[in-house]
Amino acid sequence: MEYTTLNNEIKVPMVGFGVYQIAPSETVTAVTTALQKGYRMIDTADYYHNEKEVSQAVAQSDVPREQVFITSKIQPTADYATAMKEIDESVSRIGDYVDLMLIHWPGPANVENYRALEDAQKAGKVRSIGLSSFYGQEYQEILDKCDVVPVVDQNETHIFHQQREFHEQLEQDEVKLEAWSPLVEGVHDVFETPILRQIAQKHHRTTPQIMLRFLVQQGIIVLPRSENPAYIAEDIDLFSFELDIDDMMAIYKLDQEQSYFDNLF
Ligand SMILES: NC(=O)c1ccc[n+]([C@@H]2O[C@H](COP(=O)([O-])OP(=O)(O)OC[C@H]3O[C@@H](n4cnc5c(N)ncnc54)[C@H](OP(=O)(O)O)[C@@H]3O)[C@@H](O)[C@H]2O)c1
């Protein structure tokens, strides 16, 4: 595993395990497998309804809690007090503290919501704070009006929506880009994309590994999700090969520079 350092000096793995759309009844099994395969970062959210099960899997495992980096997210609220209540509820479902808490997506009171995160951090309830799906003005407003620079902005990022320009801005601001849906949810035969298959063959890897390696090689943290133990193992095995410049250039050309999921609805 390779690691990166957040702007508050906390070290995190470049690959985390996503649990969106994993049913609560399946979450303990999935997270237990992920921990066994070497994952040490888990990405959950209030919205996923499986925070308790993530916590249960970590508690039942041989891995000490302090060696697992747990991220959760509050849903946006209309004011500071409700945001703090949501933070408290999320923290209590996970345990004594949460490693990283995000605002899941922008809402009507972003600055007030973020102020609640800042105060929760001061109180030791959450160790780091950040954003999810904040772009443009909404992102900039947090940087301009709040005190703590977010450690990450978790955004839709994958071969079809590469976020290259925004990633440059985030790097200048010392905010890490975390890729959500780094495998495009596996939809629309993405794993059969001819150029990806060619590159995968060349490196004796699978197309999902090429898609993830393309991101981590640029310093982007990835959060793949799977319930299949073989896939879970495959998705973390990204550090014994490297894409060359021709591979990278070919994948850059796949960028559609827009959300892939907007087109699906
Ligand atoms: N902040 C946000 O708003 C936001 C939004 C979306 C996602 N996220 C985070 O990002 C995580 C990942 O995104 P996601 O869950 O949307 O999907 P994803 O990781 O892009 O794709 C998951 C799909 O890929 C398949 N897959 C995974 N590894 C594979 C492999 N090696 N070979 C073949 N198929 C493979 C899975 O199959 P199986 O199911 O068969 O295993 C699943 O259908 C989420 O779980 C969540 O933590 C955050």
Concise summary:
This protein is an alpha/beta fold. The chain contains ten helices and ten strands.
Plain-language structure description:
The chain is of the alpha/beta class. The protein has a domain at 12-188 and 219-226: Alpha-Beta Barrel (TIM Barrel), CATH 3.20.20.100. 39% of the residues lie in helices and 16% in strands. It has ten helices and ten strands. The chain has helices at 24-36, 51-60, 80-94, 110-122, 136-145, 164-172, 194-203, 207-216, 229-234, 245-252, and strands spanning 3-5, 11-13, 17-18, 41-43, 69-74, 98-103, 126-132, 152-156, 176-180, 221-222. The strands form two sheets. An eight-stranded parallel β-sheet has the order 3-4-5-6-7-8-9-10. A two-stranded antiparallel ribbon has the order 1-2. Helix 3 (80-94) packs across helix 4 (110-122) and helix 7 (194-203) packs across helix 8. The longest helix is centred in the N-terminal third of the chain and has 15 residues, at 80-94. The mean pLDDT is 97.
